[in-house]
C-alpha cells in the first residue's frame, strides 16, 4: 500500500513539474517561433491555469504524505511551495484581466507582472526539486514499526 501511495504522489509531482519543464523548454519556444510571442502567450494563458490546478492537487497529495511520517523539512518547503502556488494563481488572474482573447490585445502592465510570474515559477520549480530530494531520502529510510 505504501508503494502504491508513493507512486501516486510521484506521478502527480511528475505531471506538475514535468509538465511545467516540458512546456517551458519545448512548447513555448516552438509556439513562439510558429505563432509569434503574443499568440503563443494566449495559449500559455490557458495551459498555465491547468498546470496551476494540477499543482494544487499535487500539493494536497504531498501534504497527505507528510502526515504519514516525520517531515519537518518537507513541511517547510511545502509551505513555500503552497505560497508560491497561491501567488501564481493570484498573478494569473491579474494578468488574465489584462488580456483580450478576442483581439489578442495585451494591456499595459502585463509584462511586468509576467516577469514576476516567471521568477515565481522558477523558484517554485527549484523548491519542488528540493522537496523531491527530501521525500526520496525520507522514503528510503527504514520504517520504524511499534
Q: Any descriptors?
A:
146 residues; mainly alpha; two-stranded antiparallel ribbon; 4 helices; 2 strands; 83% helix
Task: Give a verbal description of the structure.
Helix 1 runs antiparallel to helix 2. The chain has 4 helices and 2 strands. It is mainly alpha-helical. The protein is 83% helix and 3% strand.
List the helices and strands and how they pair.
Elements: H1 2-35, H2 37-67, H3 72-96, E1 99-100, E2 105-106, H4 110-140
Antiparallel strand pairs: 1-2
Broad shape = elongated
Helix content: over 70%
- Overall number of structural domains: 1
**Average predicted local confidence, pLDDT:** 92
The SSE order reads: HHHEEH
Gyration radius (Cα, Å) is: 18 Å
Q: Give the structural class.
A: mainly alpha
Arrangement of strands in the largest sheet: 1-2
Give the uncertain stretches in residue-range form: none
Proportion of residues in β-strands: under 5%
Biggest sheet details: 2 strands, antiparallel
Number of strands: 2
Gap between N and C termini: 18 Å
**How many distinct helices?**
4
What would a concise description of this structure say?
This protein is mostly helical. It has four helices and two strands, in the order αααββα.
Amino acid at each position: 500500500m505504501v508503494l502504491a501511495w508513493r507512486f501516486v504522489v510521484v506521478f502527480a509531482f511528475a505531471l506538475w513539474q514535468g509538465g511545467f519543464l516540458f512546456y517551458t523548454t519545448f512548447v513555448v519556444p516552438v509556439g513562439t517561433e510558429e505563432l509569434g510571442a503574443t499568440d503563443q502567450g494566449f495559449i500559455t494563458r490557458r495551459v498555465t491555469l491547468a498546470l496551476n490546478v494540477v499543482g494544487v492537487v499535487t500539493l494536497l497529495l504531498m501534504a497527505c504524505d507528510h502526515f504519514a511520517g516525520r517531515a519537518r523539512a518537507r513541511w517547510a518547503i511545502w509551505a513555500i511551495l503552497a505560497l508560491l502556488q497561491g501567488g501564481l494563481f493570484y498573478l494569473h488572474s491579474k494578468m488574465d484581466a489584462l488580456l483580450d482573447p478576442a483581439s489578442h490585445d495585451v494591456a499595459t502592465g502585463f509584462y511586468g507582472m509576467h516577469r514576476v510570474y516567471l521568477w515565481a515559477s522558477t523558484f517554485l520549480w527549484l523548491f519542488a526539486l528540493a522537496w523531491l530530494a527530501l521525500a526520496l531520502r525520507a522514503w528510503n529510510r527504514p520504517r520504524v514499526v511499534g
